[in-house]
Amino acid sequence: MRTLFHGGRLFDGTGAPAAPADVVVEEGRVVDVGPGLDGDESVDCTGLLVLPGLFDCHVHVIVSRVDMLRELATPFSYQFYEAATNLALTLATGITTVRDASGADLGVKQAVEDGLVAGPRMQISIAMISQTGGHGDGWGICGAHVPSPYFDSHPGRPSGVVDGPEEMRRKVRELIRAGADVIKVATSGGVLSPRDDPRHGHLRDDELEMLVSEATAAGRFVMAHAQATDGIKGAIRAGIRSIEHGIYLDDEAISMMLDRGVWLVPTLVAAARRAGGRRPRRVYPGRDGRQGEDGARRAHRLDPPCHRRGCEGRDGDRLGSGTARREPARAVAHGGVRYDAGGGDRGDDIVRRCTDGSRR
Questions:
Q1: What is the pLDDT of residues 77-131, one digit of tens each?
Q2: Is 358 a domain residue?
Q3: CA 20 to 30 Å from 287, out of 6, 12, 97, 265?
Q4: Are residues 119 and 241 in the same domain?
Q5: For 340-350, how does the pLDDT look when each residue is reduced to its tens digit (9 = 90+)?
């Protein structure tokens, strides 16, 4: 069966502007593009833009928000129903292949493949490998283990915490056994974990070399959550295929990536929300050299325009907290993931883009 899509303007991804063209699809594959084509059945695309399926290389389909207290009060199996919703939304935006960067297990992927839920094709990493005290460690400051849809283990998702090369060898094999198509590792701290610093590199060279060796033997690539400069360079030296985020890239790291053909998956959209009314306290110097949260806030104001909560941007529009300002609930999507940005009494705690002075 040849299906003809006709009458639309085609965007082909080559950099050329969209132009009128027909597309013929046979057995799920594009077999012809051009003017005046025919098919066994046709779809009228007049007035529409026709484009190829898109890839999203970094999603977390089981996560819809960053709200630890809400997660603690959510039944375990709820995450899988959220995944079904997020997968359908992702497909509806035109994304036909995703790489899940930890969270989704083999059951989620198989449900899509078997047609139980609508969604894009998936590459899954199951769980993120992390050192003790790293970005994937669910230990809470209170001393309790805090469950998270990203990291908490269950029969389909082993814990990702490792220390030492031999533990790394075993963990990679466990993840591949669990169905991982790609292996994810945190070679630096992150911004949503309580006791690690995103400027510090994590895991040593011998651990990362073991990781890549085992993954390569099983025909898997490795992706690295890497914000810190040292963590980026360590990942590159070990032969890791892609750098996720890359916040503290420097010229040397960029040259290393170019020399080795390493891909950067940048953070285009990020969202964070206070958990239970406050974020974990983080103590490190801001750009003005002052220590602690106050120094970080002052440093943030050095980069206007900005509409962060409580921050005075270039236009002087101060956004206060609590009853000072109320705004409706908002949401932002990171790939197919919908992050709740608050409403009601927390309506002022929304995600804002600070590049053009607009509030989002």
A1: 999 999 999 999 999 999 999 999 999 999 999 999 999 999 999 999 999 999 9
A2: no
A3: 265
A4: yes
A5: 333 333 322 32
- Greatest distance between any 2 Cα atoms in the chain: 69
For the stretch 249-258, contacts whose Cβ atoms lie closer than 8 Å and that sit 24 or more positions apart, written own/partner, are: 253/229
pTM of the entire structure? Answer: 0.72
Per the domain annotation, does 22 fall within a domain?
yes
Structure tokens belonging to residue 47:
């007035």
Residues 185 and 298 in one domain: no
In a domain, 170, yes or no: yes
- 191 burial via Cβ count (<10 Å: 0-12, 13-18, 19+): middle
| Structural domain includes residue 87 | yes
Quote the number of domains for the chain: 3
| Of 29 and 163, the one with more pLDDT | 163
Residue type, 176: I
What is the phi/psi pair of residue 324, to 5°? -65, -30
CA distance 204 to 134: 13
Mean pLDDT of the chain: 79
- Note down the domain range covering 203: 54-266
Kindly report the number of other CB atoms within 10 A of residue 327's CB atom. 15
Tally of helices (H runs) and strands (E runs) in the chain: 8, 17
pLDDT over 60 at 315, yes or no: no
Residue type, position 49, single letter: L
Distance CA 339, CA 329 (A): 11
Q: Quick check: 271 pLDDT over 70?
A: no
